[in-house]
Amino acid sequence: MAKDGEMEWKISFPDGKSKVLVPQGQVSSGVGFSTKFCNSIQNASKFAMSDVKRIIHCFKVGVALCLVSLFYYMRPLYEGLGGNAMWAVLTAVIAFEYTVGATICKCLNRAAATMLAGLLGTGVHWIANQFGAKSEPIILQASVFLLAAAATFTRFVPSVKAQFDHGALIFILTFILVSVSGYRVGELFEMANHRLSTVGIGTSICIIICMFFCPIWAGNELHNLVKKNMGELADSLDGKTRT
How many helices and strands in the chain, by DSSP H and E? Predict the structure, then answer.
């Protein structure tokens, strides 16, 4: 039965019976949702089976994160690093790429940027500490402004952006964290050492898993892509010559 103010469409049959037409939008939403869900599962399975390497990469990322997470779950490992163990997890999430070369490049960028920023942060903190408590925050703020602005400017350079954009971003983040947090933290060198150690652990696990467990090389991917495109081009030209 139609609600007040709504139109109702019916079909009358010769035998006197009638049938109310239900708009498509009012059909049970559960059936439509289940159909869409099944179609999504089928499309996802077809996409996954088209290249099994994608599934292998997903498993490798999961294994890397599980191994890095052990530094939180196992008390002896957690006591050695403390709360800085989270940086190893973040490193594994950010640095793990599809191919071996991309993973190594990103890991090296992150390690080098973290080391350089840690050294500069501790150095700036030591210099600012020599000028007394009143001048220390001013010097720290000036160093943050100058180095962050300079590192951000280098990200606009095409050669740097193509190869070291991730490293420049990590440099800014690490330098600010070390220099700013060092104003309130007493053991700055210990904190910087833990930060560098966690980054080294995360990058090492990423490189080992990416290289020694079903490695995916960019050269092989390029070769397969060229082979596939040449095959499709040959089929297209063959079809044109026959017509």
Answer: 9, 2
Stretch (H or E) spanning 35: helix 29-50
Single-letter residue type at 202 = G
Name the token pair of 8: 């109702």
Q: What is the pTM of this model?
A: 0.68
pLDDT tens for 6-44 read: 566 666 666 666 666 555 554 455 556 677 777 777 777
- Asked if residues 210 and 60 have their Cβ atoms less than 8 Å apart, the reply is yes
Q: Shortest CA distance to 183 belongs to which of 135, 117, 145?
A: 135
DSSP letter (8 states) at residue 53:
H
Residue 11 main-chain phi, psi, to 5 deg? -115, 125
Q: What is the pLDDT of residues 158-183, one digit of tens each?
A: 888 888 888 888 888 888 887 777 65
DSSP 54-68: HHHHHHHHHHHHHHH
- CB contact at 8 A, 104 and 116: no
Residue 19, C-beta contacts closer than 8 angstroms, at least 6 positions apart: 10, 11, 13
CA distance 208 to 104: 10
**d(C-alpha 170, C-alpha 153), whole Å:** 14
Rounded to a whole number, what is the largest CA-CA distance in the chain?
102
Residue by residue, DSSP assigns 110-132 as HHHHHHHHHHHHHHHHHHHHHT-
Count CB atoms within 10 A of the CB of residue 241. 7
Is pLDDT of 132 > 70?
A: yes
